[in-house]
Amino acid sequence: MNSIFTFVLAALASQIVAQPTEAPVCPDWSVAPLQHRWSHADTFVANDPVILRWNTTNGNLEYIQDVALFSANNNEFLHTQYRSYPGAVATTGELSFALSVPLCLQREGVYYLGVYGTTLEGDSCFKKSPDFQLTADPQGDYSVCYL
């Protein structure tokens, strides 16, 4: 009985930490590089106003429901940037928000956004943004990160 419980727990854990994969049911859309809303700086900092753009070529994607921050170093989920149900209408092609990165997560360095959407048929879709660089807050008290 103990081994069954261990097996189920291991299977569940592998699903939780597994890197998201791009769904084959949604092949005809793409996510553009993250952009600053009012500048053309090369790197980002926490709370920067940003624009995330995507392109849907066949109209199959209906809504963008979640945008999440991931470490590009190990594909670990770090922080939710946007969540809405039913979501942003996909044909709009863009979403503006403040890039939210908690202090203790700012030292990862390289990140990407995972963009989750749904089709007209209710299928789930996932795409990654290109990686981007984030500059950690130079005034941040990182000692609280080790408590």
UniProtKB/TrEMBL annotation:
<keyword id="KW-0732">Signal</keyword>
<feature type="signal peptide">
    <location>
        <begin position="1"/>
        <end position="18"/>
    </location>
</feature>
<protein>
    <submittedName>
        <fullName>Uncharacterized protein</fullName>
    </submittedName>
</protein>
